[in-house]
């Protein structure tokens, strides 16, 4: 009977060792696969970080260019507005022929047309910049 118990104990120990060894082997294989996956994901993330850094740098450069262009356009717009106001002031300065002024209507009309043509040309030049 002791031999049978000893035999069962030895068989149990062998089975326990095989199960433990198999478990460690399976764990090791699973760990290898997980490590390979993590290395691949790490490489992908490094690439993403590099790409995003380059994108941020490009976006900052583009923003600086846009800010410069916006500043230039704002200055040109303000200059055009000043020119426009000056032109309207010169148009308003024309004195319309009336009985009070005693001016010749044809001469006044000719002067008004010439001044208006000049102001239109100046507005074209101001807006074509």
Description:
It is a single chain. This protein is mostly helical. The chain has a domain of 67 residues. The protein is 88% helix and 0% strand. The chain is built from 2 helices and no strands. Helix 1 runs antiparallel to helix 2. The protein is rod-shaped and about 145 Å long. The chain starts with a helix and ends with a helix. The model has no long low-confidence stretch (mean pLDDT 85).
How is this structure best summarized?
By secondary structure, the chain is an all-alpha fold. 88% of the residues lie in helices and 0% in strands.
Main pleated sheet? none
The residue fraction in helices comes out at over 70%
Radius of gyration: 45 Å
Order of helices and strands: HH
Low-confidence stretches: none
**Overall form:** rod-shaped
Q: How confident is the prediction overall: mean pLDDT?
A: 85
Write down how many β-strands occur, each being a DSSP E stretch of 2 or more residues. 0
Number of helices: 2
Task: Kindly estimate the percentage of residues that lie in beta strands according to DSSP.
Answer: under 5%
Global structural class: mainly alpha
Assembly of the depicted chains: single chain
- From the N-terminal CA to the C-terminal CA, the straight-line distance is 112 Å
């Amino acid at each position: 009977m002791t031999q049978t118990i000893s035999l069962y104990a030895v068989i149990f120990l062998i089975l326990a060792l095989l199960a433990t060894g198999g478990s460690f082997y399976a764990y090791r294989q699973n760990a290898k696969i997980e490590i390979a996956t993590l290395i691949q994901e790490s490489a992908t993330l490094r690439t993403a970080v590099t790409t995003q850094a380059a994108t941020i740098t490009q976006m900052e450069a583009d923003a600086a260019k846009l800010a410069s262009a916006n500043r230039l356009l704002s200055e040109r717009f303000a200059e055009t507005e000043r020119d426009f106001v000056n032109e309207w002031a010169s148009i308003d300065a024309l004195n319309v022929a009336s009985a009070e002024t005693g001016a010749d209507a044809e001469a006044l009309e000719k002067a008004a047309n010439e001044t208006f043509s000049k102001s239109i040309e100046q507005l074209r030049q101001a807006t074509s910049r």
